[in-house]
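Inputs:
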Amino acid sequence: MKKLFVYLSNYKKECILSPLFKFIEASFELLVPLVIAAIIDTGIANKDTGYIIRMCLLLVLLGIIGLVSAITAQYYAAKASVGFAKNLRHALFGHIQSLSYTEIDTLGTSTMITRMTSDINQVQSGVNLTLRLLLRSPLVVFGAMIMAFTINVKAALVFVVTIPVLSVIVFGIMIVCIPLYKKVQAALDKVLLITRENLTGVRVIRAFGTEQEETDKFVEHNQALTNIQKFTGRISALLNPLTYVIINIAIVILIKIGAIQVYDGIISQGMVIALYNYMSQILVELIKLANLIINITKSAACANRISAVLDIKPSLEYKDTAPEKRQAQYSVEFRDVSLRYKNNSEPSLDNLSFTVKKGETVGIIGGTGSGKSSLVNMIPRFYDAENGEVLIDGVNVKDYPLEELREKIGIVPQKAVLFKGTVRDNISWGKNDATDEEIFNALETAQAKSVIESKSGDLDYVIDQGGKNLSGGQRQRLTIARALVRKPEILILDDSASALDFATDAALRKAIREIDNSPTVFIVSQRTSSIQYADKIIVLDDGMIAGMGTHDELLEKCDVYREIYNSQFKKEADVNG
Amino acid sequence: MADKISMQKGTVSKVLKYIKKYRFLLVLSLVLAAASVALTLYVPVLIGDAIDYIIGENNVDFAAVTEYLIKIAVIVCVTALFQWIMNTINNKITYNVVRDIREQAFRKIEILPLKYIDSHSYGDIVSRVIADTDQFADGLLMGFTQFFTGIITIIGTLIFMLTINVSITLVVVVLTPLSLFVARFIAKKTYDMFKLQSETRAEQTAFIDEMVGNVKVVQAFSHEDEAMEKFDEINERLEKCSLKAIFYSSITNPSTRFINSLVYAGVGLTSAIAAINGTMTVGALSCFLSYANQYTKPFNEISGVITELQNALACAAHIFELIEEEPQSPDLPDALVLDNVEGYIAIDNVSFSYTPEKPLIQNLNLNVKPGQKIAIVGPTGCGKTTLINLLMRFYDVNSGQICVDGNNIKQITRNSLRRSYGMVLQETWLKTGTVRENITMGKPDATEDEIIAAAKASHAHSFIKRLPKGYDTVLSEDGGSLSQGQKQLLCITRVMLCLPPMLILDEATSSIDTRTEIKIQEAFNKLMEGKTSFIVAHRLSTIREADTILVMNNGNIIEQGNHTELLKLNGFYVNLYNSQFAH
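Outputs:
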């Protein structure tokens, strides 16, 4: 958490000035009871109206000083906290982008999003409050006590006893309540879960006619939630009455001691009133302080979560200089490659070796979890091999600078992700300076021309966030165009034709083969029909190559391939024949 | 505006209906509130009186002071007790009312027509049941504890002050609302800044959502620098408008504090002069000073409380919207309980559409004899699930009728109709709970042997056995760590256990490895033995074996017949069929 203070370093001035002005405000606030005492002891006692007016003007002046210092303090606190949040967001955003797939997988994107948004907001308000209040509240509490000492030592001893007792009660109740609030939250989550389930599973629940059982379950958990809420409420409701009793008992004792001191001629009547006023000030500040501490605790937890992300080091390192060109026999080559994901005991890919010539099409097939996506993800170096090496044009991928490596490759991910913006913006992701003609060519190859023709017909058609205004198949074709527009040397289709019907899928494959200077293509698929005509098919089973060759070769010699093929084709073939 | 107010009134009266149950507690709470406020206000008077007996050196009436002090101590303890009881009662009323409302909302969910549930996002409904009720509870509690006592405090203070001194009271009354105006003024001025802040924040969150959510794609296309640039641009804007919003709104507190110190000075001046003239004692002065503090506090709080209350009412209105939603038409009073179904299904001249503008199924006729298999085929999104919706009576037909064993399904209880079908959807749904609880959903009293037999028949037994606690393994939301295929097998087991006379099956298309898929296929076949079955089919083998194939496109059944008949037709089906082999 301490590391986050770096992001405050531009705001050193603000971080000192804000508490300083708060300090000034509080100091002047502490003078008010003394002025009142003076009005009583001097003004009223001497019947000096002029003195009283002067003192009241002094009160107004103290108020103005308080106002000005408070506003100044608020300004600096706001400036420092907002700037801090800006710097932190910038750093975190940049950091997340620099992480490699391995770290992204471990963290999960949704946690990263909450950390960037609500966690940072919480820390921002924590910083703001801390700058404003952390110094002020203790100052008022102890300042009031010190002022009491300057008035009368015996009376001040009441403060010495009261402050710790009040602190124990205020903080004690909070300490008891915080875990209870967590329980309330857990109970609420349970109710939420049941509600959600009844919506997502509405068809199944109604099909089985178990509405009554579900309602009973809901009522039971709803009651449990209510019980814990009421219990927590009863305890937290103790805070106000208890502090009220203590502060007033303290005032009673204070007046009693004050009475004796006045009788002995040690202090005046006005001083007793001043002591009484100081006691009242303490309670307000202690409760503020307790709330502040809760807030700081929350912010600290958020800050720790943010630091945890910032502390993650990207696991991939890149070369800065381009490797020397050499005449390579193969476009892509895997040499004894193994891959093991973090926290997994079993390797996901085990000792893979194969070669692919330039312009060849490679089909990759296998069951779920067999390692198909892992294999293609190693080519653009989203993951690094644990053993062995992956070579592109005869050079180990680790020896390429990041930009150069990724330039060579056009990838169409499994999930068809598009971004908010025009079709042109989205396709240009693949090539920043793409001309409209290049974009149209890519769209044509990707069988996506009909997509924009069915919309407004031009490249300025605006895609909603997440591509919600397009169908799954339309999105997929656009992501394919995005990969094609850069005319990649290697094209990777990671099960990315799954939402296309068979005819479009076939037309797409044909169009890709007809590109000039055709790229090396990797097609990952569940369907044998998509890869049947590849130059080479790699059959994966449990991270190992179960067979490699053309369709006909594999049918003859590879059991796994035959099994997949039969399950999809055999009976149909019978019918057809 | 008038609409808004009348709507709020409506909501308030609905809330009151729920509170009515607790009216005795409510009255008690109000009485206690009034009593404790009165006592709280009385304490400064007593303190002032006590101080009046402490006049100066050798001039203190100890007996009188002590008497007052004891009185104060007793009153303080009683007040505290009242406060605590009142708070506890308020808690009880609030949480019970919210519990009742939440339960009502849930019960409504169980009987809402599917049409409502399908056309609303789950997040929206859930947030009404959870977040809105929670927010409503907070507001209600705050209203009870602060709004009411605040108003009593203001009135009480006024009365107490008037009994002591009228002119000083006027000073307080005139000056105090100033702080309210200042707070209002600042809130109005900062409203636009806050709006801009939350809009900018929303814009940034949406951007983060896109870029961080899809960071893999960003990296694959080396788009990091462009993303950073755009991010910084939004980030700078956010910094500027946040600073404005936070700073200007944070002026409120110091400003109201300043007004308070003006009040303080005013009270000090007038009461000191009154004291010189002998119309007031020093003790009364001290009492006035503490009133000046007390009187302004509820004023400062009340504007916050009102916003909170309005917020709570808006949330309540949200929940009531759900609670008042039209439920599905109840079963007819003389509805038939379907029993010993043979499996005749007649679809007679049925038309249906989700929205009147977009006709879907028109004049559909279909006769199914017991044991027949009906395959439904067509491209994705062609409306295959619509047919399931009608058969299960998740939706009612617009015209025509569907009969089971000769009975119109509108005249059958929904429960018995649905229980006559076994349904396995492609989107598997498992509830949180043990594997056993999930399997026995349709037959809670099944014996261990029956459960195991069903699991064996659907090829699920072997993987269930390997789970950490076998049949008692607790599954987290949506099946937790089970694979898609395993979830599917569990859903089949669930149906296998009840063995209903008719089936609706949805073949999985993707993401299941071949071996599991073969198991699922076998389980399906076993399930279908001798039963009337509707299968949303993706596999040609299933289609070929079906007695009737319904070819659907754009929500319509466009061709109907068996495989050979449809091939002869040389229409849409042939295209669909051949595309499987397109090279």
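Remarks. DSSP finds 20 helices and 14 strands in chain B. The mean pLDDT of chain B is 85.
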